[in-house]
Design a protein that fits this description.
- The protein is of the alpha/beta class.
- The chain has two domains: 97 residues, Rossmann fold, CATH 3.40.50.10860; 125 residues, Rossmann fold (3-Layer(aba) Sandwich).
- It has eight helices and eleven strands.
- Helix 1 links the parallel strand 1 and strand 2.
């Protein structure tokens, strides 16, 4: 009998996650009946040490709120993960726990798919692990940006309307509005959006967040996080099969 090969996802309150279904369908398509994918809902990052003990675990994904907190528990980081300062994919290889960031790959794919040449600068809403991957991609493509977050110099209370007018790419990186809290949205001057704007919300559940609904009402082009999610998952699969 073939040895079981295990994967999973660590995070907190992640019962809504798409990853389990996505990877189980992949295992089925590729005829890999001995492969499995589990959800590990951790109360705190220290609990990850129990996950490390699971037999035949080849790797796992990392989501909110542990993308930065996981780093001290790992032996090595890929160049990208080190530069970004956040990890969303872990590979176990040759007795080492290696951290990667595939969010950057996923976001880059989404951005280049939808961005037009007039959209030259960005507002990044949020300052967590996902926002770090977004900023890494913007820097790579020489797109200047400003970060807006709760405790930042520019925050959701004092965000100048001119900043919204002049930054035609808006990337919503906070978890606000994620299922089940679908009526929530970050405080934002939506009236300053226009048909010139590209608004990307990294949330994928629901498919259209309250934030995207309000942006679409101003005729902005709106994109959710589904493509980014699929692209980062494909990249994670590639890493696990190195």
């Amino acid at each position: 009998m073939e040895e079981k090969v295990k994967f999973g996802l660590i995070g907190r309150n992640i019962f809504y996650s798409f990853s389990k279904k996505y990877f189980e369908e992949k295992f089925s398509e590729l005829k890999l009946p001995n492969f499995s994918y589990s959800i590990f809902d951790l109360k705190e990052i220290l609990d990850v040490q129990e996950i490390f003990e699971i037999e035949n675990l080849r790797g796992f994904n990392v989501t909110i709120p542990y993308k930065e907190q996981i780093i001290p528990f790992l032996d090595e980081l890929s160049d990208e993960a080190e530069k970004i300062g956040a990890v969303n994919t872990v590979l176990f290889k040759n007795g080492k726990k290696i951290g990667y960031n595939t969010d950057a790959f996923g976001f880059e794919n989404t951005l280049l798919l939808h961005k037009n040449p007039k959209q030259k600068s960005a507002l990044v809403l949020g300052n967590g692990g996902a926002a770090k991957a977004v900023k890494y991609v913007l820097e790579k493509h020489q797109i200047p940006y400003q970060t807006v977050f709760r405790n930042g110099k520019i925050n959701f209370k004092n965000l100048p309307k001119e900043a919204v007018n002049s930054h035609l790419i808006i990337v919503q990186c906070t978890p606000v509005g994620t299922f089940p809290n679908v009526s929530d949205s970050v405080d934002f001057p939506f009236e300053n959006l226009s048909a010139e704007h590209l608004v990307i919300d990294l949330i994928y559940n629901p498919a259209e967040t309250e934030f995207l609904k309000k942006a679409a009402a101003q005729k902005a082009t709106t994109v959710n996080g589904e493509n980014m999610l699929k692209m980062q998952a494909e990249k994670a699969w590639e890493i696990w099969n190195i």
